[in-house]
Amino acid sequence: MTTLTPTTATGAGRSAARADARGDLALLVHQIRYEQLSFWRNPQSMVFTFVLPIVIITIFGAVFSGGADEKFFFGLTGMQYYTPTIAAVSVLGACYGQLAIILAMRRQTGVLKRLHATPLPAWVYFAGLLVHCIVVSVIDVALVIGIGSLYGVPLPTHWAAVTVTLVLGAASFCALGVGVASLIKNSEAAPAVVQFIQFPLVFISGSYFPIHSEVLNNIAGLLPVKPFNDAMLAPFAHNAGFQWKELAVLAAWGVIGALIAVRSFRWDPRPE
């Protein structure tokens, strides 16, 4: 009979852990691929995700192209102001709005319930959603930046700050999207609930026009959208790097969304 020594047992345990890690990684890659295929095979979702920011920035480009620096835009041209803020709005829509609606619909139709009954770990499912949303956000931001550059907007000088801000913003808005989806009773109410929260935030945060009210700016600075706007604006318009205060506020809201999601997320639809 073969006797397992402590060294042998430890080696076997490490091999099993490596096998489990490889298995989880394979599941994660598969889940990301599934989310990507689901997205790209849904023309309506794809078109609204990418076309809306493109249309908005193109219209703003036609209106503000060639304009001089203005006090109204805090010493920037209109396009210098709007390129990063519209890029930020596109990330908000892809990571918060769409995710909350999709999760509410999947729960209502029983997709989440069936998924929860499979061996797929919950963290793999949500990590797959997060990576998918980051990929979509990167494409959205690249399109907006590309169109902005056609209207003479200089590219940012601090790409590391843009990258960290984009990833942190996407992660925080995803967490908030899952948290809001946890509180939505049914899929029919999802778009209304999402817009009820998103619409006022976008406007008081200066996404579509600058806010010169100190009171409103102070209030919006404590909410997630304005800090994200400001952190995106800095590398584009002010040649600045990391905006740590704004990033900290954004991260805090991501933690709040994650805590709400952990405490309240349901895989099963609520009984009517």
Any descriptors?
mainly alpha; membrane; Transport permease protein; 272 residues; single chain; ABC_2_transport; antibiotic resistance; 0% strand; cell membrane; 75% helix
Characterise the protein shown here:
The chain starts with 5 loop residues before the first helix and ends in an 8-residue tail after the last helix. The protein contains ten helices and no strands. Helix 3 (78-108) packs antiparallel against helix 5. It has one domain (19-264). With 272 residues, it is mainly alpha-helical. It is globular. This is Transport permease protein. The chain crosses the membrane at residues 46-65, 85-104, 124-153, 159-180, 192-211, 247-265. Keywords: Antibiotic resistance, Cell membrane, Membrane, Transmembrane, Transmembrane helix, Transport. It is found in: Cell membrane; Membrane. Its main location: membrane.
Give the structure's gist in a few sentences.
It comes from Streptomyces pristinaespiralis (strain ATCC 25486 / DSM 40338 / CBS 914.69 / JCM 4507 / KCC S-0507 / NBRC 13074 / NRRL 2958 / 5647). This protein has one domain.
Distance between the termini: 61 Å
Largest sheet: none
Say what oligomer this is.
single chain
Strand fraction band?
A: under 5%
Summed over residues and divided by their number, the pLDDT gives a mean of 86
The overall number of domains is: 1
Structural class: mainly alpha
Q: Kindly provide the radius of gyration, computed on alpha-carbon positions and rounded to a whole number of angstroms.
A: 21 Å
Unreliable sequence segments:
none
Order of helices and strands: HHHHHHHHHH
Per DSSP E runs of 2 or more residues, the count of β-strands stands at 0
The DSSP helix count reads: 10
Shape call:
globular
Helix content: over 70%
